[in-house]
From TrEMBL:
It is a peripheral membrane protein. This is Daunorubicin resistance protein DrrA family ABC transporter ATP-binding protein. Transmembrane segments: none annotated. PANTHER family: ABC TRANSPORTER ATP-BINDING PROTEIN (PTHR42711), DOXORUBICIN RESISTANCE ATP-BINDING PROTEIN DRRA (PTHR42711:SF19). SUPFAM superfamilies: P-loop containing nucleoside triphosphate hydrolases. Residues 6-236 form the ABC transporter domain.
Amino acid sequence: MRDAAIHARGLRKSFGATQVLDGVDLTVPAGSLLALLGPNGSGKTTTVRILATLLAPDGGTAAVGGHDVVREGAAVRRSIGLTAQHATVDDLLTGKENLELFAGLYHLGRRAARRRAAELLDRFDLTTAADRLAGTYSGGMRRRLDLAASMVAAPRILFLDEPTTGLDPRSRAELWTVIRELLASGTTILLTTQYLEEADRLADRIAVIHGGRIVADDAPAALKHQMGSERLTLRLARPEDVSRAGAALSAGAEDGTGIRLDADTREVALAVHDPDHLRRTLDLLHREGITVEQADLRTPTLDDVFFELTEAAA
């Protein structure tokens, strides 16, 4: 796609006998944020490493910033920034020295390096800690410094691989603010994350990867709409009724999918599309002699979408 900052088709990658990517298709329009979700081992980081030219694909094609990741790797690297899962800052240097070091690696002159470091320290709210050793920074400050380092060359495209993992809620919220500002300035962002709430709040689109394939790719609201207009959770009186309820509801469901059972909590969860659907569900359980102790009706969340998609793919 001509307006796509990132475009991949049929990416494949194996490590020995283990196939990690099995035909990944991704498109990220310029100036947008796509969140890549998936269980551990689903291929998120492998996808990012291929797009950032750190790994060569076994098959398929990908272009980043209009450049082929295999044939034009140097051009790709000039147009991107990367924040990996683990911070890459040097603990024995100050925050300012870290950024000046990265500026030197991008061949900025000494004066330009100092100016760029000062700009980024201010942008990422690190000016007061500029002369402290990075090893004394909190987790959130280290991640902001790491993100600042990835922005030294003002890249048009940014890869963020689980940037908030391990951060406390306040530090995570602070980093979300920084990411929104980068997006508002026109930066294209591919974000991998374990936090569904993070994807819901930040992403223009969400792609779910499972078993090395993209199993869903849409706007957050559209993905949640696929689950039905409401999500119904029923707590039953007896644990032994959970499997009976699941069988009865599956047989009578409009699409036969989207039903989750938990015998430990005596809960049955399913999508309901309208008030008549809710009434039919409760009437069906009543006819089966299944007693409902509690009913909770709410709008679907990305957690529902994630479990539904990954369980269906499995």
